[in-house]
Design brief:
- This protein is mainly α and about 100 residues long.
- It has five helices and no strands.
- About 75% of the residues lie in helices and about 0% in strands.
- The chain has a single domain, classed as Orthogonal Bundle (Arc Repressor Mutant, subunit A).
Amino acid sequence: MRSGHDATAARSRDEDSLRLASGTFADVLEERFSEWRPTSAERDVAIMVIRGFWISEIAALRKTSEGSAKVQANAIIRKVGVSGRSQPMSVLIDELLTGQIGERP
């Protein structure tokens, strides 16, 4: 069993790792946005898609129609070069896990 000090130190290391991963993810996402060149609306929608929001939720949050949100989501999917809504996130995660950022096949 861990002592209180050991548990606190482990939690602190975990929090540091999470902050580092979050920063790295944000850096990778910015690099991809530079490559994909989304419009401002597409960028907003892309972030929401990556976060797992449904088209209806995206439309409600952006105060737009579901049709507009779907068109913007599909534009991002085309720019990324994948075939489905979950795949932009997969591209980013693969780059982070393999350490091959920007080296997609």
